[in-house]
Amino acid sequence: MAVGIDDIALYIPRLFVDARDFAKARGMDPDKLQRGLGISKMAMVDTNQDPACMAANACLRIMERSKLAPKDVGRLYVATESSLDESKAMNSYVIGMLEQIYGDDSFGHCGGIECKFACVSGSYALYDNSNWIRAGESGGKSAIVVVSDIAKYDLGSSGEYTQGAGAIAMLVNDNPRIMQFDPKVTSTSIKNEYDFYRPFGKETPIVHGQYSNLLYMIQVKKALMSYKEKALSTGLMKLKEGETILDYIDFLNMHLPYSNMGKKALSYLIRHEWRKLPRWKKIIEKMGMEEPIPKDPRGTIESVLADSEFMAKDHEFTKKFAKTEEFQDVYEQKLASSLIASQMIGNLYTASLYLGFRSCLEFEFQKGTDLEGKRVGFGSYGSGSSAMVFSGVIAPEYKEIVKDMNLESEMGNRIKLSLEEYEEIHENKRGPNENLLDSKKEFVLVDVESSPEIKGQRKYIYKE
Ligand code: HMG
Cα(179)–Cα(166) distance, rounded to whole angstroms? Predict the structure, then answer.
């Protein structure tokens, strides 16, 4: 049975912080953000927006675009790490908002939960809902998987320039117009880690930045190795002498906490995959530099990071490798188009990978690439930590959906925040009703109850 993504809709808040203004205010070189990390703008929520109303807005868009009635939807899952309640799931708020439009109890037949595993949970939600359809439990209905987050870090921290906000809704069914998932190859890795985490009650995460970068790559590589085993044993891919599975993946989408992380991860995975192939010898000869090895190759992530001689050499090697024609070809062909939206919007945590996929579809289509039958690989990572690698093949009907994709117009008229306004919103100095923008045709938060017996109850309305 062909199961996959039938449609994608996004909701990105219109407020943003410009990376140049930000760098100036923090006394940083703007090139570090723009060239070093690949960040131009970071989307920010207004005071009357939260992850639940962004999720509902993305859902409403997919319902309208795909002309769905509530009876067509059997499951609604929300994956997020910006949870609003320890018990009440975010999809219940979303159902409440959608029922303001479609009528009381119109989604009463629907099921779903809120999923959490940092940025990777949306991928688990997609996989579980695909299996619900494969198991024949869906009764012909579709599932909606929404990924929605606000990436928020402490003022003045090194994570502060990797913020962003937004939601993406994906329609999953057995007649997908965009992409069919490859069956029986989805692979995962998992390990108890503290690279990035947010203890109860804390609004911003505790982050070990460089540790998280390396862990991300190690975990995705582990999942990729398991994907490779499955791809070969199921016959999905048959490798000839000197080939790697990456040769059979036409486009790669990586989790993007900032856009250059995609490039970093690509380089790491290619090095791992090409190292034993004849092509590697030629590249090393051209580069005139051997690949460095840590003092303790079987050491921990901490020992590798503490090996400053190795880290400096490895950095030099990575930079040289990134300049080779061989890397540049793979980068341009397989990854570059997926990074464009991330540069414009920033980190969306759970939604980052899918914003990348959306970006790849739109910008490859604009280039005139024929995507039909092309294989897309996904490298999903969530701190804490787990990775998932999976793939899919673009469906013949993809143009029906992709031809109308336009990130700029779907985001609407974006408004730049001054640094003062940004800091006021960041530090929660404005109440929900002290919003900066007038909203139209979207759900907004109007109140959060404070009296003890109804504390925390949230009220949303649809602004016509
Ligand atoms: P940092 O210390 O600010 O930056 O940390 P850096 O010193 O590593 O520099 C970044 C890049 O800018 C480097 O490029 C520099 O060379 C370059 P690279 O060598 O890596 O290619 N650079 C410049 N380029 C041009 N002109 C200049 C200049 N100066 C430097 N003047 C870090 C960066 C990402 C670690 C930090 O922002 C951070 O901690 N962010 C939050 C954590 C994070 O995003 N981790 C990513 C992996 S973990 C993950 O993705 C999971 C996550 O999404 C959470 C979840 O799963 O829920 C975070």
Answer: 22
Please give the distance, rounded to the nearest whole angstrom, from the Cα atom of residue 436 to the centre of ligand 1.
30
For tokens 């092309």, name the residue: 374
**Are 241 and 365 a contacting pair, CB within 8 Å?**
no
Local structure of 313: helix, strand or coil: helix
Cα distance between residue 76 and residue 95, in whole Å: 8
Query: Hey, what are 47's tokens?
Result: 């005071």
Ligand 1 centroid to Cα of residue 352, in Å, is: 16
The rounded distance, in Å, linking the Cα atoms of 442 and 459 is 14
- Name the token pair of 286: 């051209």
**CA 121 – CA 95 distance, rounded (Å):** 20
Contact 157, 36 (CB under 8 A): no
User: Ligand 1 pocket: which of 195, 383, 388 to mutate (most atoms <8 Å of CB)?
Assistant: 383
Tell me how far the alpha carbon of residue 37 lies from the centroid of ligand 1, in angstroms: 6
Note down pLDDT in tens along the chain; length 464 residues: 899 999 999 999 999 999 999 999 999 999 999 999 999 999 999 999 999 999 999 999 999 999 999 999 999 999 999 999 999 999 999 999 999 999 999 999 999 999 999 999 999 999 999 999 999 999 999 999 999 999 999 999 999 999 999 999 999 999 999 999 999 999 999 999 999 999 999 999 999 999 999 999 999 999 999 999 999 999 999 999 999 999 999 999 999 999 999 999 999 999 999 999 999 999 999 999 999 999 998 899 999 999 999 999 999 999 999 999 999 999 999 999 999 999 999 999 999 999 999 999 999 999 999 999 999 999 999 999 999 999 999 999 999 999 999 999 999 999 999 999 999 999 999 988 999 999 999 999 999 999 999 999 999 999 99
